[in-house]
Amino acid sequence: MTARTALRTPTSALLITRLATEYGVSEQDCLRRTGLRGDDLRGGTLVTGAQEIALISNVLRALPDIAGLGLLAGLRYHATAHGIWGYALIASQSLRDAIEVGLRYLELSYSFCLITAVESADEVSLVIVPEVTNPAVARFVAERDIGIIATLYRDIAGPTARLHTVRLPYPEPESDATRRIAETLSCAVQYDCDHYAAVFDRSTVDDPLPQADPHTADLAAGQCRDLAAARRALTGTSGQVRDVIFAQPRGPLAEAEAAAALHLSTRTLRRRLAAEGHSFRSLLDEVRSALACELLSGTDLPTAAIADRLGYSESASFTRAFRRWTGTSPLRWRKAQPSPV
After folding, report:
1. Each residue's pLDDT tens digit, 277-321
2. Pair 197, 128: CB distance under 8 Å
3. Taking burial as the number of CB atoms within 10 A of a residue's CB, which of 139, 172, 229, 285 is the most buried?
4. Which residues contact 7 (CB under 8 A, 6 or more apart)?
């Protein structure tokens, strides 16, 4: 499953839409040809990465002349917007630990970039390589990740925390834009670099963080691991079936429908899944469990709405299924999630 096909909560799309409307772009224009409506974003409808890319493209067509728009967008993505992935960062012991867990489970973020940590004698750089082909969209998503990193740093290390340097691979814009970008980031900005990067002072990366909590960090990391495992299992027939289920989470998706989507007979599908140690029922449960946990931690949707999103006609049926998956009820699971200080 790629970032374009993976389902995600609508928080990111909603944040981008709100930014654009503040610059005078209508919500309708933001969502044109995305298959989304405003009520979908506010109601918690899961969206694909491709839909978010289409939304970003619409916004950039409407606002082509705002330097650093991606940076401005990124400043809106606080740790809580990222669900359990964000909580794992908040509870980390040090910035180094937060970077390690953040990159290990990067697919749980809203990023469309490849991000790697590069350490030297004086700095730790997060080098950002956008994985989209459209140049304008690539610039936006890379800038957005820099803005997100700057925001997450303040969320986990304190309001005075600032990046040491930001590196941008394009020429310095006119003076007003340069000043606006510098004020947005509150750190040194270097232009005409070889890559995008958010840079930390190496002397600070091992300092203890104010909200560090080993128990919460282990709990959140375990939940990240389980959710990421469901998304990473992409090989073989079982991976293809997961993709089909992720694309139609509302269901109820029948085994025969999944087989037809893969151009297989139901019998052949069962045989191939059995050879890989799976059944259609187990994969359906796995995907629904992962999405349920993501919606419970990443949105304020009531249980009834989440049940509907996942194809359950009654909340009671969803609650029974969730208890079977996790050993507890959706309400208790949500209450047990770590909360930022």
Report:
1. 888 988 888 788 878 887 887 777 888 888 887 888 889 999 999
2. yes
3. 139
4. 46, 47, 48, 246, 247, 249, 291
* Residues 221 and 242: beta-carbon distance below 8 Å: no
Please check whether residue 35 is in contact with residue 51, taking contact to mean a CB–CB distance below 8 angstroms: yes
Order the strands of the 165-167 sheet from edge to edge.
113-119, 123-130, 196-201, 165-167, 188-190
Single-letter amino acid code for the residue at 164:
H
Angle formed by the axes of helices 280-298 and 315-326, nearest 10° = 100
How far is 214 from 191, CA to CA, in rounded Å?
Answer: 39
Helix axes 135-157, 175-185, angle to 10 degrees: 40
Question: CATH for 233-335?
Answer: 1.10.10.60
Task: Give the pLDDT of residue 7.
Answer: 67
- What's the average model confidence in pLDDT over 109-114? 94
For the stretch 88-106, pLDDT in tens is: 999 999 999 999 999 999 9
Residues carrying CATH 1.10.10.60, the chain:
233-335
Which of 306, 311, 282, 284 shows the shortest CA–CA distance to 295?
A: 306
